[in-house]
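Re: the request from the purification team.
They wanted to know what the chain is likely to look like in 3D before they choose a buffer screen. I agreed to run a prediction and write the result into the notebook, where they can find it.
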Amino acid sequence: MRNHRLLLLTIAGAAAAILASSSPAQEPGETSTLRVGTFDSRAVAIAFYRSPPFQERVAGLLTESRAARESGDAWRVMQIEKYKPAMSHRMHQQGFSTGSVREIMQELDTELQRVAEDAGVSVIISRWEVAFSNPAVELIDVTPQVVALIDSSEEALAMIRDIQESEPVPWEQLLAHEEDRRPIVDEIRPVIDEQGVEAGIGRYLELRDAACEHHRAQLEAAAEEYDFSEAQLNELGYYYLSAGETEIAIEIFKLNVEAYPKAFNTYDSLGEGYMEAGQTDLAVENYMRSLELNPENDNARQMLERMGVEHEDAG
């Protein structure tokens, strides 16, 4: 409530400033409209989490986790493993419900001024934070302009339209789903161990297709019962890679590439699998593809250099 009061005071102050500076003086009965830009925080969050800068952060976290495992730093591994579900929880709050995206908007600080000027608005806030507005306030949707600061592609614009056609998931429903969801690796790892990797992949596809059929939405949003996120298969692949089951790891990484063909980290992981298997050509091919999707992926550059491929060749 305190934030809402502060927001209303901010808007009221801006309105007072506009009214005070208006010229000529208003006649009795005239009103001055305050234009406030609003945005759908879900669209901003999903655009941000799909962006190369965020994917780079995830890659850095995975690289750090990998290094910690190799060095035997169990404490750091535990810290990172605890951070992952917390980050996933936050992403779901922001991407599917009405969770605040303040930290994302802070990264767009300087660009937001340009959006405000172009739209002719004095304030930009999440549409879910507007507790009340009177007729003197005109609410202007600037969601496309804000999202364009992160991703201006046609795909992003289509995503905005799809998101804004649906209502946010209520918090209590979102929390209930998160508590009920099980890691997909817990379901398919026993199948792989008992029946082989092909059976495990078949089970994964069966569950994924059932979830998508039920929800008809993005894969990340599809599962009520299982977590089908990119990190799940990546974790499972590294589980088998660290256990010396390189062929199984490669099949899991390939499945992740199929599920997330635009995620640079899936190709990065597959490249490592092929490198461990001594299949240098395929390793180079996948590291190069990872760099195409994210030219800032330093891990891919380092791996290519280790195999004698200059990183300039990956541009």
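For the purification team: Confidence is low (pLDDT under 50) at residues 1-26, 215-223.
Please add any questions underneath this entry.
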